[in-house]
Amino acid sequence: MIGIVKFFNNDRYLDALIAGTLYCNTPEYYRQSKLEGVSDKNESCLFSFRPERGDDDITMEFNGVKIKDIKRLTAYNPGFREAWLHCWTTLEIPKNDEELIIALQNDVQRIQKKFGRTYAFIRYDKITPFLTLQRYL
Fold first, then answer.
1. What is the pLDDT of residues 82-114, one digit of tens each?
2. CB neighbours of 51 closer than 8 A, spacing ≥ 6?
3. Distances from the Cα of 37 to the Cαs of 74, 84, 94, 112, in angstroms?
4. Calpha distance 63→86 (Å, rounded)
5. Maximum Cα interatomic distance, the chain, rounded to a whole number of Å
């Protein structure tokens, strides 16, 4: 890995990052989002059920007892807890020209279309120092 990159569709968040503040969202934000490339109904969990999201009704069974009319459900990964999220993309050194072209066309250009052309890049050796300087918004 040569570093990480973050694309922005709102310069306010890039300006905040430059000033030392990370703009973060909750896992629930991503579970409820309808945006392509952002939405992940099972973000930071094994499974989530949200009728307001349009999920089909579910039935659970514990020790032979069926539970219906579930209002909302989040099944968490054992040993993990929710935390604020700030998503970055890693940049790898391509093995050859073909891999470089594929990476640029399939990854970077696609991400820029969805998330914006403005970006921040942090070299691999600067990631840890960068994180020690951040405040979270």
1. 888 988 888 888 888 888 887 777 777 778 887
2. 57, 71, 72
3. 21, 18, 23, 11
4. 39
5. 58
How far is residue 36's CA from residue 34's CA, in Å, rounded to a whole number? 6
User: Which tokens is 93 given?
Assistant: 């050194």
CB atoms under 10 Å from CB of 27, counted, come to 19
Write out the two tokens for 28. 């629930």
Rg (C-alpha) for the chain, rounded Å, is 19
Angle, alpha carbons 132-90-48 (nearest 5°):
90
CA 91 to chain centre: 16
The per-residue pLDDT for range 43-89, each reduced to its tens digit, is 999 999 999 999 999 999 999 999 999 999 999 988 888 888 988 88
pLDDT in tens, 121-130: 999 999 988 8
Extract the tokens encoding 130. Answer: 């960068």
Name 74's bridge partners: 48
